[in-house]
Design a protein that fits this description.
single chain; six-stranded antiparallel β-sheet; five-stranded antiparallel β-sheet; disordered C terminus
Length: 206
């Protein structure tokens, strides 16, 4: 399985490539958790077609509030090195990064009120801080926790897969979290003032 973190047209999503048969690879993409963020399957199709992979089929569940696309591509010329070639092609064409490249490491557990993602909610959760090799700090929610918060905010029911093992990591807005900023000083993390909106990163267990 190859898992990538990618960005296309300001939409963060991941590709999960799995060998589903001798000549087929299944590619899953998931957009940010937002009713307005809908990743077009055309992006993936165009990428794969440009790499010489024949478009086979796509399945979209119209009942899903959070859209997930299952895309199958076929290349009858695949050989034992095909998966490695596919990985190189995708990396060179899109600039995707392997999730393992991020080197996420846990720092400490905290209880944080989510202000940046869902401003009107009062949901507090015990999460875990993570630090990547660039000393960017993340706090982590499970998919189930995110959906629960969305339901609370919008008073709508968002369906989700209970066996979903994905984590959704959010970059902390440390300018408004002075307590966290102080606690991180022991790790040599320098907090920079920033007005940037919270970025959403999607990870999957490897």
């Amino acid at each position: 399985m190859l898992t990538y973190l990618a960005k296309n047209d300001s939409i963060d999503y991941y590709l999960d490539i799995q060998e589903s048969s001798k000549y087929n690879y299944q590619i899953k993409s998931a957009p940010r958790i937002s009713k307005l963020s809908l990743l077009s399957a055309v992006n993936l199709k165009d990428i794969m077609l440009s790499l010489g992979y024949k478009y086979n089929q796509i399945n979209i569940n119209p009942k899903d509030t959070i859209k997930t696309y299952d895309v199958l591509y076929k290349n009858t010329n695949l050989n034992p090195e095909a998966l490695s070639k596919l990985e190189k092609d995708i990396l060179s064409y899109t600039g995707y990064k392997r999730i393992s490249d991020y080197g996420i490491i846990p720092i400490k557990k905290i209880t944080i009120e989510n202000k940046s993602l869902l401003p009107k909610t009062k949901v507090k959760t015990t999460s875990e801080l993570y630090l990547d090799k660039n000393k960017t700090v993340f706090y982590r929610y499970t998919f189930k926790e995110l959906v629960a918060m969305l339901n609370k905010k919008t008073k709508e029911y968002y369906q989700y897969d209970y066996v979903n093992t994905n984590y959704y990591d959010f970059e902390l807005d440390l300018t408004s979290e002075t307590t966290i900023a102080k606690s991180l000083s022991q790790y040599g993390i320098k907090i920079k003032n920033s007005t940037a909106k919270t970025k959403v990163y999607t990870f999957q267990k490897l």
